[in-house]
Recover the amino acids of this structure.
């Protein structure tokens, strides 16, 4: 199936397939058709060879570079609330990503505002040589024409711009590799059945918490295989698997504050296979803690505006490190265009700071896509070769507070002419962090960290401990760090607070206000990135005024609060 | 045409609700048109009645009320105890639960391109604050339209607690939004001119209690159909000019509950099966060309045989080949024949959408027929009605059939135009122009706000001419108007209509098969790249004659309340003057390289 067709077919599918707000599903999809690895590789090779020699529009040259990627995914999903199934699904899929470069490595159709060097399409999962070639043919043709048009625009734009001071090529050389890796643990039907049972059991815990308005639990298993072929003859075939459980709860405080937006809770357990998940008792305890925390938050006081010392620990430390230490190290050059300027979302912040001090000298940061996590755990986001087929390298980003290098794809920079295996994406590639390890020499034990926090706050300053951030947090222009779970630490005790909003966070705050770190690493994982970091203590943090424009609380109580059927409702 | 795929599109769609409606549909599975006995009169004979089959709900249907419905009734009553007595009270609360199961199989070139099986439940909450005379649903261009309140509903156990929690949350949110809207509306009413239409905002209807059977299982041999679809889709192999092709099957069963604060408790269900064939190509000048054919059925047994599918594929391939070679149309004004199915779509777009009563309540809508009640709007030999209780015409099952609408109101025939005179509108429980009762046309796709929609639209002619004579009359009319040719529209894939005052208030229907019929006797000539455009009032009065045939368009229609199945039936029509415009041609070059060859060998079992 090609993309234009997809749009049209969906218009027609809408007849009998609900395309409404919510699509719930309760049965597994049919398995994929017959498999024939050789047919897939041969289709990629043959259509690529034909395109490189014959794909030529008028007087234009054929592509000088092609990258074909086939990603197979077997993804299953189950979600439940209050012990009842909401939906489940098992969906095999295959996606093609194609990158087409015309021109030359010195100047091609990439690295220009508004351009994308390739396209993607969902195609049949059957390993049919002829049909796959047909799909490749259509997508390559479309992207080739698009590439020619982009290069023409880029040349036209350059013709009216002043000559660049430092001419940097658009595409770097990379070694030719051929690798096959398999780190996947297949998910059996029995595993999925167990996960479903687990979702029902975990979600039924919320029956014990009538003041939690909504508690949802979902699990995702994914077995993925990525095959990649470039016109330079690089071939990689890599398989991975992962399992993840998410718990999301929300409620409304007694004063009407929408805690579903600002104080919802997430707990995640990620593993490479179902057997690596934490034991049920541990997960159940965490869900209960989450629900209790949310219940307590309903009546917690609002955070007060002012200046404070803030300790980010657990998940919040990872979330903050992602904002301050992962995105800023992308070495992706900004697209050339008349309006070129720095990114406003905090990415690329360290692009011009190689060799400069940006953090305390006890802080070091490394990104290593091939590394294991604490306790030798496989991290879900890792890989052996990146999405451009370049072998992943361990990269020291900050050594003793000094920026050493950036994360690079095959889009070079003046002083960083080569990829270090951090090109991520499908058709379009961007340099990004994968497994980011933040380490602190001389990290403190928790009680010492708290003592340091109290000291740095001074006798009149507040100390907050933040354990989870809202997804709405950001360090871009006009954004703030918003806490979902936070407590005020006072006189050796923790008191829940609501609406904690922290202002002025930017990478430069690392150097100025990061005063200490813990000695116990925590792992935060999502699908593309894992962050391993100890707790981080910042001083001189501006605490903003909480938003108090709330709707009225519910006019009548949750049915959970009135039903004798809810287990433990009387607690 | 709206293509609705994600939730956040909803508000946008609502904001432009009256702007455009799209429909897509297909030939009837029964194939060629059915011809009623010819009548012989000079200008036109008295027409034979259409062979319609009406239905009525089973009266002995009395399955037990489902436990989930009982739980939600308790939750609804609990909500009304508080919200019904609030300072700004709820006067109407309804829960619509849709349990659906969908099977979709998509095949191309001998392989399965995708297959999904989905089953789920949703709840839509409809809540009105105020009084039936003036409530939070009142139409106003100054206040954002009412949103939809839909949630995934769990598959509950006995206590129904998870579903009740979902309903509670959605009701709470709907109430607060409704209060906000109601207060805004009241403030607007104080500072704006009085509404022209003083009809109440909500009709009073007798509550309906009917527990019909839940939908039976889909009964589809999925593995068998995969093999069949893969095999028939392989027929496109080797057709070099075809750029894309698919054969797909969609099967859906749906059981819907409707419970309301007035005491309505309704369970009804349906099943539908749709086999579709799509193919596209590109003319040498870059114009994209596509053909589409579908077969509709209510049971798996009603789906077409492989031979019928194969025949349709051949027809599509040949049709696209012919279209690629066909000359490009020119803008045209002159006489035309709309053959039965094309005429059905034409009426659906040109008049059907404009008779949906809620549009007459919106002061941003063109309200084409708002003040035409009792006035002639088309020639006196034509009558138009919409009757969802019709099961079949001839042997063809009608897509727009239902017994209860989505507000629980029993469906009834709406006699829209009688002998050329406008008599009625399509009504949900939103009254218009003094008509204060619903005629059972409130429809919705789950997750969309309900409005009045068409079901089975039927155009009947009291006087007809032999259909074969229409061509001669077309030539005669072309000569009279000094045109070298007239046009014959054989098939239409769908269309748009724009009823907004800010827009053109015109329509566009998109024919797929159009011929020039030359006045000088040359053979008819297929042309490409033409759309019919115009405004409705002028066009309708130019209908000169109806044939003694009829044909049925079975399809789906998309508008504010989502996609709903519809049918449109009409005789062939001779129109004195229509206007056509050129389609967008596109400027993409055809592919540089030829398509790689696909092996045309088909193994037993069909998959390669």
């Amino acid at each position: 199936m090609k993309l234009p067709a997809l749009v049209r077919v969906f218009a027609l599918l809408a007849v009998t397939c609900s395309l409404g707000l919510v699509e719930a599903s309760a049965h597994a999809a049919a398995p994929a058709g017959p498999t024939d690895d050789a047919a897939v590789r041969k289709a990629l090779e043959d259509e690529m060879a034909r395109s490189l020699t014959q794909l030529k529009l008028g007087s234009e040259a054929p592509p000088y570079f092609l990258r074909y990627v086939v990603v197979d995914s077997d993804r299953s999903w189950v979600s439940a609330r209050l012990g009842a199934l909401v939906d489940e699904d098992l969906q095999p899929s295959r996606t093609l990503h194609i990158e087409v470069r015309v021109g030359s490595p010195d100047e091609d159709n990439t690295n220009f505002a508004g351009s994308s060097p390739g396209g993607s399409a969902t195609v049949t999962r059957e390993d049919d040589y002829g049909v796959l070639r047909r799909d490749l043919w259509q997508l390559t043709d479309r992207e080739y024409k698009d590439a020619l048009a982009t290069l023409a625009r880029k040349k036209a734009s350059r013709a009216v711009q002043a000559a660049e001071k430092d001419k940097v090529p658009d595409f770097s050389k990379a070694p030719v590799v051929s690798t096959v890796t398999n780190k996947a643990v297949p998910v059996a039907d029995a595993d999925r059945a167990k996960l479903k049972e687990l979702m029902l059991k975990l979600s039924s815990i919320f029956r014990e918490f009538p003041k939690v308005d909504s508690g949802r639990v979902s699990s995702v298993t994914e077995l993925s295989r990525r095959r990649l072929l470039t016109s330079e003859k690089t071939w990689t075939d890599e398989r991975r698997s992962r399992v993840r459980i998410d718990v999301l709860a929300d409620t409304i405080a007694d004063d009407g504050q929408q805690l579903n937006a600002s104080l919802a809770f997430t707990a995640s357990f990620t593993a490479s296979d179902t057997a690596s998940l934490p034991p049920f008792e541990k997960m159940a305890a965490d869900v209960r803690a989450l629900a209790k925390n949310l219940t307590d938050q309903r009546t917690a006081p609002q955070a007060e505006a002012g200046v404070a010392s803030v300790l980010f620990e657990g998940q919040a430390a990872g979330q903050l490190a992602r904002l301050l230490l992962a995105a800023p190290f992308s070495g992706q050059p900004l697209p050339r265009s008349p309006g070129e300027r720095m990114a406003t979302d905090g990415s690329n912040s360290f692009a011009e700071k190689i060799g400069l001090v940006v953090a305390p000298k006890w802080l070091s940061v490394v990104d290593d896509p091939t590394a294991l996590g604490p306790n030798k755990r496989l991290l879900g986001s890792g890989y052996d070769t990146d999405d451009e087929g370049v072998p992943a390298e361990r990269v020291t980003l900050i050594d003793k507070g000094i920026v050493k290098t950036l994360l690079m794809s095959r889009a070079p920079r003046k002083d960083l002419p080569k990829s270090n295996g951090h090109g991520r994406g499908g058709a379009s590639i961007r340099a990004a962090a994968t497994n980011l390890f933040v380490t602190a020499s001389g990290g403190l034990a928790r009680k010492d960290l708290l003592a340091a926090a109290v000291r740095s706050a001074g006798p009149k300053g507040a100390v907050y401990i933040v354990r989870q951030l809202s997804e709405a947090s950001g360090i871009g222009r006009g954004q703030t760090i918003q806490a979902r779970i936070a407590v005020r630490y006072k006189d050796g005790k923790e008191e829940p607070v609501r609406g904690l909003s922290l202002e002025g966070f930017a990478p430069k705050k690392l150097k100025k206000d990061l005063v200490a770190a813990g000695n116990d690493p925590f792992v935060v994982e999502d699908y593309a990135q894992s962050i391993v970091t100890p707790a981080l203590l910042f001083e001189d943090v501006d605490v903003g005024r909480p938003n108090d424009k709330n709707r009225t609380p519910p006019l009548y109580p949750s049915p959970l609060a009135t039903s004798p059927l809810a287990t433990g409702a009387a607690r | 045409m709206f293509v609705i795929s994600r939730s956040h599109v909803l508000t946008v769609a609502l904001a432009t609700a009256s702007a455009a409606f799209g429909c897509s549909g297909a030939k009837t599975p029964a194939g060629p048109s059915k011809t009623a006995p010819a009548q012989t009169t000079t200008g036109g004979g008295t027409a034979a009645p259409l062979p319609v089959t009406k239905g009525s709900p089973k009266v002995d249907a009395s399955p037990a009320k489902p436990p989930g419905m009982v739980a939600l009734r308790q939750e609804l009553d609990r909500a009304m105890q508080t919200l019904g007595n609030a300072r700004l009270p709820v006067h109407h609360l309804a829960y619509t639960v849709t349990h659906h199961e969908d099977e979709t199989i998509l095949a191309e070139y001998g392989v399965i391109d995708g297959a999904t099986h989905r089953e789920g439940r949703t709840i839509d909450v409809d809540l009105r604050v105020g009084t039936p005379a003036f409530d939070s649903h009142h139409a106003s261009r100054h206040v954002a339209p009412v949103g939809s309140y839909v949630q995934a509903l769990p598959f509950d156990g006995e206590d129904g607690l998870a579903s009740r929690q979902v309903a509670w949350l959605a009701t709470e949110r709907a109430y607060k939004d409704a209060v906000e809207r109601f207060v805004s509306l009241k403030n607007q009413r104080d500072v704006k001119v009085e509404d022209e239409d003083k009809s109440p905002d909500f009709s009073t209807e007798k509550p309906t209690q009917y527990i019909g059977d839940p939908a039976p299982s889909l009964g589809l041999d999925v593995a068998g159909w995969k093999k069949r679809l893969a095999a028939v889709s392989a027929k496109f192999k080797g057709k070099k000019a075809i750029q894309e092709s698919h054969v797909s099957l969609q099967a859906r069963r749906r059981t819907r509950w409707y419970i309301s604060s007035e005491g309505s408790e309704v369970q009804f269900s349906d099943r539908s099966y749709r086999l579709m064939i799509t193919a596209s190509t590109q003319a040498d000048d870059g114009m994209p060309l596509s053909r589409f054919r579908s077969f509709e059925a209510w049971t798996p047994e009603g789906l077409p045989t492989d031979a019928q599918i194969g025949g349709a594929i051949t027809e599509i391939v040949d049709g696209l080949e012919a279209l690629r070679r066909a000359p490009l149309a020119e803008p045209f004004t002159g006489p035309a024949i709309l053959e039965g199915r094309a005429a059905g779509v034409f009426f659906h777009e040109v008049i059907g959408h404009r008779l949906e009563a809620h549009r007459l309540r919106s002061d941003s809508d063109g309200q084409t027929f708002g003040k035409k009640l009792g006035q002639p709007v088309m020639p006196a030999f034509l009558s138009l009605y919409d009757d969802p209780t019709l099961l079949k015409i001839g042997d063809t099952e009608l897509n727009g059939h239902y017994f209860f609408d989505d507000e629980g109101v029993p469906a009834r025939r709406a006699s829209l135009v009688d002998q050329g005179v406008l008599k009625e509108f399509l009504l949900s429980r939103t009254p218009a122009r003094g008509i204060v009762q619903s005629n059972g046309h409130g429809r919705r796709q789950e997750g969309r706000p309900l409005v009045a929609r068409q079901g089975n639209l039927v155009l009947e002619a009291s006087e007809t001419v032999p259909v074969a004579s229409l061509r001669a009359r077309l030539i005669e009319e072309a000569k009279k108007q000094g045109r070298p040719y007239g046009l014959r529209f054989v098939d239409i894939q769908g269309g748009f209509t724009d009823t907004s005052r800010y827009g053109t208030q015109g329509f566009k229907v998109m024919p797929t098969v159009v011929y020039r019929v030359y006045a000088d006797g040359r053979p008819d000539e297929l042309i490409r790249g033409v759309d019919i455009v115009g405004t409705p009032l002028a066009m309708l009065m130019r209908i000169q004659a109806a044939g003694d045939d009829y044909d049925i368009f079975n399809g789906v229609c998309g508008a504010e309340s989502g996609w709903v199945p519809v049918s449109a039936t009409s005789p062939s029509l001779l129109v004195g003057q229509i206007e056509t415009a050129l389609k967008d041609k596109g400027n993409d070059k055809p592919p540089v390289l030829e398509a790689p060859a696909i092996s045309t060998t088909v193994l037993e079992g069909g998959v390669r």
Notes: Chain A is about 25% helix and 30% strand.
